[in-house]
C-alpha cells in the first residue's frame, strides 16, 4: 500500500510542526516548566513525532520564540489593512509584549549561545516591522516625523517590564497612552539641559 507522495508527506510534517509550535506556545505561556511529553499529549501527537521535529527542549523553546516573532512580523501588513495605523501599533506591541513575557518565563533555556544567536537574528525583522508601523503612523499624522525604530522599540520595552499584578493590563494601557502622546508630540524637543541653571 502506498504511503503517499513525498510532497504530501512533507506537507503533513510541516502541518504537524506548525500545530506543535502553536500548542507549545500556549503551554509555555501557562508555565515555562511544561514538559515535552505534556506538549505532545496536548498536540495529539506521539512523543516520537515531537522529538523528530524538536530533539531537545531547548530546540522546541527556541523554535516557538522564532515562530512567534516570524508570525508577528508578517502580521504588520494585515494589521495595517484592518486597523488605523495607531491602533495597529498598539495591537502589535501588546502582542510583542506577550511573546517576550513568555520568552522571559523560559529563563535559562534561551540563554545558551545558540539561542542568543538565533534571538539576535530576529532583531532586524522586528526593526523593519516597527519601522513600517511608524511610517504608517507618520503618514496619517498620528506620530511626528523623525522617529527612529530603534528608539521606539527601546521605549516600548516598558510593556514587558510591568510586574505581574491584577492591574497590569490597565497600567499598560495608561502607560501606552502616555507614550503615544509623546510620539505624537512636537518634532523638535528642547535640549535635555535647556533651562538648567548654571
Describe the protein's architecture and organization.
This protein is mainly α. The chain has two domains: 1-55, Homeodomain-like (Arc Repressor Mutant, subunit A), CATH 1.10.10; 57-183, Tetracycline Repressor, domain 2. 69% of the residues lie in helices and 0% in strands. The protein contains nine helices and no strands. It has helices at 6-30, 36-43, 47-53, 57-82, 85-105, 113-121, 123-139, 149-155, 168-183. Helix 1 crosses helix 4 (57-82) and helix 5 runs antiparallel to helix 7 (123-139). The radius of gyration is 21 Å and the shape is globular.
What's this entry about, in short?
The protein is built from nine helices and no strands.
Number of helices: 9
Gross CATH architecture of the largest domain: Orthogonal Bundle
Helix content: 55-70%
Q: Tell me the CATH superfamily of the largest domain.
A: Tetracycline Repressor, domain 2
Which band does the percent of strand residues land in? under 5%
Pattern of helices and strands: HHHHHHHHH
**Global geometry:** globular
Straight-line distance between termini: 88 Å
CATH classification, class level of the largest domain: Mainly Alpha
Give start-end ranges of low-pLDDT stretches: 188-198
Number of strands: 0
Output mean pLDDT. Answer: 84
Largest sheet composition: none
> Number of domains in the coordinates?
2
Mind telling me the C-alpha Rg?
Answer: 21 Å
Amino acid at each position: 500500500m502506498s504511503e503517499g507522495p513525498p510532497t504530501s508527506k512533507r506537507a503533513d510534517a510541516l502541518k504537524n510542526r506548525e500545530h506543535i509550535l502553536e500548542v507549545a506556545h500556549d503551554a509555555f505561556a501557562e508555565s515555562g516548566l511544561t514538559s515535552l511529553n505534556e506538549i505532545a499529549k496536548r498536540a495529539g501527537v506521539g512523543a516520537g513525532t515531537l522529538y523528530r521535529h524538536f530533539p531537545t527542549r531547548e530546540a522546541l523553546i527556541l523554535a516557538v520564540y522564532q515562530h512567534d516573532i516570524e508570525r508577528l512580523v508578517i502580521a504588520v501588513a494585515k494589521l495595517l489593512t484592518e486597523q488605523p495605523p495607531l491602533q495597529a501599533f498598539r495591537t502589535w506591541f501588546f502582542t510583542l509584549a506577550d511573546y517576550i513575557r513568555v520568552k522571559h518565563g523560559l529563563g535559562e533555556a534561551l540563554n545558551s549561545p545558540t539561542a542568543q544567536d538565533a534571538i539576535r537574528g530576529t532583531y532586524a525583522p522586528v526593526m523593519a516591522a516597527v519601522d513600517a508601523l511608524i511610517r504608517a503612523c507618520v503618514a496619517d499624522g498620528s506620530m511626528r516625523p523623525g522617529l527612529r525604530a530603534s528608539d521606539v522599540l527601546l521605549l516600548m520595552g516598558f510593556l514587558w517590564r510591568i510586574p505581574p499584578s491584577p492591574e497590569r493590563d490597565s497600567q499598560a494601557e495608561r502607560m501606552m497612552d502616555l507614550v503615544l502622546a509623546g510620539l505624537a508630540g512636537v518634532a523638535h524637543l528642547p535640549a535635555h539641559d535647556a533651562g538648567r541653571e548654571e
